[in-house]
Amino acid sequence: MTDFNAGTEFDRQVKTLVDMGYPALAGMTETAFRDLVEPLRKPVLARAATLQPPTEGRVPFLLVVTRALAPLEESVPLTTLAGKSGPGVIERFYAPGELERFVSLKELALPEREVYVVFDIDRGEEFCNVVPLDALATIAERGRTPLTIEEGIAFITQHPRSLAKNKCFSLGGSRLGDRRVPALWISKHAPKLGWCWEGNPHTWLGLASAGSRSC
Questions:
Q1: Which one of 38, 60, 150, 196 counts the least CB within 10 Å of its CB?
Q2: Alpha-carbon distance 71 to 57, whole Å?
Q3: At what angle do helices 30-37 and 6-19 cross, to 10 degrees?
Q4: Would the pTM count as exceeding 0.85?
Q5: Is residue 89 predicted with pLDDT exceeding 80?
Q6: DSSP letters along 149-198, please?
Q7: 103 by DSSP, 3-state: which?
């Protein structure tokens, strides 16, 4: 992909969400959902000149629908791997109701909207086989922040190729207050939302991050 148009990509992402049934998940009509998302076009176009074309591991922006509109238990099964049809699943080791307690870190200062845009997303494959706590420290030194669960779901929803064999990623922006770090990896040819320990490195698991967020 050598030519990149931010407006066209914005429209593609909205269409993807609509086609996947996000308006229904949110209990909204398609028109109402589109109206809710449309204001995000402005911050995207404001940065259009600086946005780079997406690659498998890094994308310029994502439209993020929070769990306030699309429950995680319903948005995860809508994801698939590139070229596959198996629906995403949630790791059974999450206790009933526990997933909702993994919330965004206060220091992320997420936009106070049910939908927002996140910029400059990197799946962080350089952090494969790096202890998550060390990876978090490194991205903080770079002025970046870890992705939340919803942002990770948005990543593989809009760019299924971002989740690949030996290039999976943790989502350190959502935590429960213990040593567990949510992560997206591949299981039985489908995405899986699970968790790993913050002190344990894995050769196939990096740590995804973002440059900034806006609404």
A1: 38
A2: 26
A3: 150
A4: yes
A5: yes
A6: HHHHHHHHHH-GGGSBTTBEEE-TTEE-SSSEEEEEEEETTEEEEEEEET
A7: strand
